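Entry for the shared binder. Reason: the reviewer on the internal report wants the predicted structure included alongside the sequence.
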Amino acid sequence: MGMTRRHFGIGIAAMYLAACDSTTLQSTSRPKSTGLPADLKPVPNADYDVWVAAFKTRAEQQGISSATLATGFRGAGYLPGVVKRDRNQTEFSRTLEDYLAIAASDERVSKGRAAFAQHQSTLNALEGKYGVDAEIITAVWGLESFYGERRGDVPVISSTSTLAFDGRRGAFFEKQLMAALNILQSGDIPASRMTGSWAGAMGHTQFIPTSYQAFAVDFTGDGRRDIWSDDPTDALASTAAYLQRNGWTRKVRWGGEVGAGAPAGTVIQPQSGGPKFAVTSNFKVIKRYNNSDAYAIGVGHLADRIGGSGPLRASFPPDSNGLTKDDRIALQQRLTARGFDTDGADGVIGPNTNKAISAYQSSKGLPATGEPSQELLQSLG
């Protein structure tokens, strides 16, 4: 099957290749959402209102009832923050090492093992029906929404209608909006509960509306395909169904690190000087979920860790600043100990670490470059 779950960049879930098509893969040190920011709440926009009126006519011609349109757009509106995020997406060039430091962090692994244990009977049932490894399903869940903790709380009708009106990818998002209204019309979810990311990816495993229509499953048998519920069963089943229908081969591993019992397969080395991976056809199926080698390795490696395997055996080379991961962790720890909080010590140099470095440099009367270095590490003792 040639359908991808989503094919537009809306975050940094594939930081390594800047090819992500999913919600933000967040560092585990980031706090949970405490409510929508002001720019993700509706504001008056007369042009948007005119567009919506014309869209409703098109929607009715395609079978959306006036009642569904009324309930779907009740309280909906133009979200300026959605347009801002869509236009200001940054292309990242993170290393695979950095990506895996987040994707398979100690916290994500421990939470994954706990989630696997809690839902093991359901996951085993899904593996039995769809043939997709229970650990793989759990790992997708972990990368997409941190095991349901970060499902997104932006109203989908508002986000997709805003992006359709904006026009940069208008045809695509009008299709998503129409699909969302069809979902409401089918009775799977009331409009008040249809929330997701700023670009309309929904539920525990972040399906866009068209993919929901194609793959969502009512595994609980309650008559609704509820991927938004606190109970993740339907969402996990939908992910298993997606992978199965995109060609998953039962009892075949995704791959693994070369030299660590990986199956024979195509060998790839995404980061020069770093670990090599032997991958199978199921690796390519994971990429149907998100077309990035880094994402697929992240899912596979996290799945292995959830299943009890240890960290990668091979090391990564020092970064462009001559720092190893241990060096970067030490740098973050030393800065934080001196009162320049890096918001965690995971070895990933991001905006919080750059800000802390700048503050430290300024305190010492040095140029505030914000850049890490061996000299900086040594100066911190």
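Summary line for the report: The longest helix spans residues 170-186.
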